[in-house]
Amino acid sequence: MEVLLDLTYLSFSKDGRRETMKTKGSHALVIGGTGMLKDVSLWLNKKGYHVTVVGRQKSKFHRMLDQAYKKENFSAVNMDYHETEKFIERLKKAQNDLGSFEVIVSWVHSTADELIPKIFQMMQENDGEYDFYHLNGSRAYIEPFTVTPPSNCNYHEIILGFKLTETHSRWLTNKEISDGVIDSIQHHRQLTIVGQTEPWELRPN
How many CA atoms lie within 13 A of 121 on its CB side? Predict the structure, then answer.
């Protein structure tokens, strides 16, 4: 399997060279940030955040960097988040080096169901509040995800629905998903449904 990078996290200077970040500022974490949520990562970067992205493929990360407003404000975590304890330690290191996460955008598969509670636990060690944008698939509309965020967490749920045309239904595109997530962040909505979830029986198979 192709991995993103061979280091815990990296930053890039304007000429593309790797370097370690020294300054601390607004820090965002995007899990799934080089694929489906690439445009969210780029938008946060343009808004002035240092963005730590979790992804797998090196080629996707470098293609994203080619579009970045400030390449030096991107870092990468290059491990499987199913290795929960090691993954959390990597996130702690990123926060120690770059400041606490103020925004977390999370697209985590159900096979890693213990990860989000572990992230909440990690974030309780920080001072101050943060915004957690939790993406769920369409089934969360009829089977709500049970979560108890800590007191310092501003929790926002984003349910990914589908699109219904005159002839058929289809799943959302990456751009439609990213646009919906960005809109949720801009308006600080507690619940956002991207696309539609009704009529449920017409969703794509």
Answer: 9
Q: Where are the alpha helices (DSSP H) in 114-188?
A: 115-123, 174-187
Torsion of CA 202, 32, 39, 133, to 10 degrees: 70
Whether the full predicted model's pTM is greater than 0.70, yes or no, is: yes
Digit-coded pLDDT (tens) for 65-110: 999 999 999 999 888 899 999 999 999 999 999 999 999 999 998 8
Separation of alpha carbons 203 and 50, rounded Å: 37
- How distant, in Å, are the alpha carbons of 25, 36, 44 from that of 75? 13, 17, 13
In the 3-class helix/strand/coil scheme, how is 13-57 assigned residue by residue? CCCCCEECCCCCCCEEEEECCCCCCHHHHHHHHHCCCEEEEECCC
pLDDT at 25: 61
Rounded distance, CA 27 to CA 95, Å? Answer: 8
Residue 163 near residue 196, CB atoms below 8 Å: yes
**C-alpha distances in angstroms, 80 versus 69, 102, 172, 200?**
27, 23, 25, 33
Q: Indicate the SS3 state at residue 164.
A: strand
Query: In whole angstroms, what is the distance from residue 145 CA to residue 195 CA?
Result: 19
DSSP 3-state of 135:
strand
The answer to whether 23 touches 97, Cβ cutoff 8 Å, is: no
CA distance 21 to 75: 9
